[in-house]
Design brief:
By secondary structure, this protein is mainly beta. Helices cover 11% and strands 44% of the residues. It is flat.
């Protein structure tokens, strides 16, 4: 039984999604629109806006929104001509604003297209310059962006009280616990932090919303700790998270997950059961932190199962190679681990594989409970490690 896709929650949303994700046969019949972009002067860790000029049907509804950021590239989805929904109209040149999120300094590629699974219409280079804001003796701690948002990365510059330290002899660590962000530095080796005279600069991956105390601590050569600075830091609420439901069907002994409430309700009426508490992620493409990755969703009729991955290479392999998996789009957006570890404020989501490829019965399960993970491994499933990092609870 193939799991059916269900309509979007609201009729207007369904129309918008149908415009954005037209079937390839319809898109191929239409001439590619003329597109140009006015790019802003961008500085590091600041919100800026640009404008994209696009030929569209005058009746089209929608805005330009960012799909995701990955490895120096940003993807923006464009409003698309509505085809048979409003035939006969002459395309008009319209201008749409788009937002560029706070980014570290560097060179980026901005892609503009109609859908995430098709080649972009146009790509543009963007250089993000160093910020003019910096820590000074008068203002010894600078946070950029100045109003960090939940689960989005931010930069901290700190003027330390030790002068003339060599960058390759400077070591620092960041610990987050009990509402405190503690930056501890000392004279060590193998530093991954940047030192400019006596200024420490580091990037924090992102934290849950709330008020924190940002504390700078110096470790002396004799091992004693001295607190140098302490300031409050407010991290604002970000886009809301939604529950990802974990389901199980006893007749086929398969697991499935979805962040789509109507899809979950339909499946519960068709013999599926709630398997466990699930986890949390960002569902809508226009509401997720910029460091969250899209989760590719695939279906195989051969094994009657779905598969999910946030690994771009794994996703691309399944999409481009004839392996029997059909790409169904992005099922959710979520934070991924680094070196197998999840950032503060998130919990690991473990991936399991039933190892039944030879029987044409492959299936995966995703769990947050470590006891369930170990128990299923004991029952013959293969533990594939941490796949995602879930926010602890709905905001």
């Amino acid at each position: 039984m193939k799991i059916l896709q269900v309509p979007a929650r609201h009729s207007m949303l369904a129309v918008l999604l149908s415009c954005l994700l037209l079937a390839p046969s319809l898109a191929a019949q239409a001439a590619l629109p003329e597109i140009s972009v006015n790019l802003p002067v961008a500085t590091a860790w600041s919100d800026v806006s640009g404008t994209v000029h696009l030929e569209v049907n005058p009746h089209v509804i929608g805005d330009v929104f960012m799909s995701h950021v990955a490895e120096g590239e940003l993807l923006y989805l464009l409003p698309q001509g509505c085809g048979f929904l409003c035939p006969g109209a002459t395309p008009e040149l319209k201008s749409y604003p788009f937002n560029i999120p706070p980014l570290p300094p560097g060179n980026y590629k901005l892609h503009f297209g109609f859908a995430a699974d098709t080649p972009p219409l146009a790509s543009f280079d963007l250089e993000v310059a160093q910020s003019s804001f910096e820590a000074t003796a008068a203002d010894p701690i600078v946070v950029l962006p100045q109003a960090p948002v939940a689960f989005a990365p931010f930069k901290v510059d700190v003027v330390t009280m030790r002068n003339n330290l060599s960058p390759d002899a400077y070591y620092a660590t960041v610990k987050v616990r009990d509402g405190k962000i503690e930056i501890e530095y000392s004279v060590e080796s193998d530093s991954s932090f940047v030192l400019d005279n006596n200024t420490l600069s580091t990037t924090i991956r992102g934290l849950p919303a709330g008020r924190y105390q940002l504390v700078v601590v110096r470790r002396n050569t004799d091992g004693t700790l001295v607190q140098e600075r302490e300031v409050p830091l407010d991290i604002a609420q970000g886009p809301p998270v939604e529950q990802v439901h974990s389901l199980y069907h006893p007749d086929i002994d398969h697991y499935f997950m979805t962040a789509n409430e109507p899809e979950k309700d339909i499946l519960l009426d068709r013999g599926w059961r709630i398997a466990d508490e699930g986890f949390y992620a960002w569902h809508h493409v226009w509401g997720h932190p910029e460091n969250a990755r899209p989760v590719c969703r695939f279906y195989s009729a051969q094994v009657n199962s779905h598969f999910y991955t946030a690994d771009p290479k794994e996703c691309e392999q399944l999409r481009t190679q004839n392996l029997g998996w059909q790409f169904e789009g992005f099922g959710m957006w979520i934070i991924v681990p680094e070196a197998g570890a999840c950032p503060t404020g998130t919990v690991p989501v473990w991936r399991l594989y039933n190892n039944r490829y030879a029987q044409l019965d492959s299936n995966h399960r995703f769990v947050v409970d470590t006891e369930t993970y170990r128990s299923m491994i004991s029952d013959g499933w293969i533990g594939e490690g941490v796949a995602f990092c879930s926010p602890v609870s709905a905001e």
